[in-house]
Amino acid sequence: MIVCIAVNAAWNVVNFRLGLIQALLAQGHQVHVLAPAGPEFSILEQLGCMVYPLNIDCKGSNPINDIRLMLQLHAYYTRVCPDVVLHYTIKPVIYGSLAAHHLGIPVLNTVTGLGTAFLSSGWLQSVVKKLYRLALKPTSSVIFQNPDDKQLFLDNNLVSETQALLVPGSGIDIERFSPVPLPDQQGDRPVFLLLGRMLRDKGIAEFVEAAQWLKTQGLQARFVLLGFLGVENLSAVTREQMEAWVATGIVEYWGETSDVRPMIARADCVVLPSYREGMPRTLLEASAMGRPLVATDVPGCREVVQDGVNGALCRVKDGPSLAQAMLRIAQLSPAQRLALGLAGRERVERLFAERYVINCYLKAISGMLK
């Protein structure tokens, strides 16, 4: 069987889909990955995948560029004749599905989050909904990572109940992300870490606002940002803005990394004040390593964080509410933080382990081909 996987970034495949790819290869299937070229291509080729560079304007809304993307996907699917295609992220889902449907190829789409365009108001949101409806209606199955996104697509008549499947994220390798002791606090200064792409939609500005307020209240803590700057996204934080925040002394920026585990190990709490998520992998990875969490009470985040059990929830787009949630964690004893972290680890093992998610995908693919 030939399986094509199309996504908007090669790092996305390596970070989030590697376990599924390895499972497909282990079953003897050919795997073709279509994504913008990146250093991760060499990793995929070493595994035995075929790779194909896509030209995707991730943050643009130029219809000519999007039509070119659809034609590029159509040409590749015509040449390879895959048995099934898997699409992730908004543009591959929409334009890859249109290309595959024209060729009669079975499609398994995954809605990993709604994205800035869907969450915006006005004409852009209306266009995105119409494109989703056109692309998803002929699709056999559409996987959602949280119940809120699934219900939203049902309410907007973008998918039917028989199409919609619920799978808890991309899965976490619980052996790779194993518990580590909380760090020894230097001068009793806990470290609050926000890791992920540096996007305003991730609540970066609210994190800085909360950190500033907590410092004015005399809290001795470190507030750290970690992740890619200048990514192709409408809400991307610029390097100039980051440098300005760091210059105030309110936050630290630890740069970018291909392995977040050492950074999570240095943190006492991991924070994600996102406006909305599919299933936030950064929170799951941190929880698997035994870290308390602070997140917004929004779709995706609330599926991971149980207030008072493995962390604290706050209101969305609300710096003071975020500050209060972080203060709750800061005021806990090390033993109490450890208890939250252990509860989170148990929850990840029970609900979000990678082996379960991979089995869900393999079952869905098998069902489509019968």
Name the descriptors:
alpha/beta, Rossmann fold, 2 domains, 7-stranded parallel β-sheet, 6-stranded parallel β-sheet, 46% helix
Overview of this structure, please?
It is a single chain. This protein is of the alpha/beta class and 370 residues long. The protein folds into two domains: 2-171 and 353-369, Rossmann fold (3-Layer(aba) Sandwich); 191-351, Glycogen Phosphorylase B (Rossmann fold). Helix content is 46%, strand content 15%. It contains 15 helices and 13 strands. It has helices spanning 10-26, 40-47, 63-80, 90-103, 115-119, 123-136, 147-155, 204-216, 239-247, 261-265, 281-288, 301-304, 319-330, 334-351, 354-369, and strands spanning 2-6, 30-35, 50-53, 84-88, 107-111, 141-144, 164-166, 191-195, 222-226, 252-253, 269-272, 293-296, 311-314. It has a seven-stranded parallel beta sheet with strand order 3-2-1-4-5-6-7, sandwiched between helices. Strands 10-9-8-11-12-13 form a six-stranded parallel beta sheet, with helices on both faces. β4, α4 and β5 (107-111) form a beta-alpha-beta unit. α1 (10-26) packs parallel to α2 and α4 runs parallel beside α6. The longest helix is centred in the N-terminal third of the chain and has 18 residues, at 63-80. The relative contact order is 0.12. The mean pLDDT is 93.
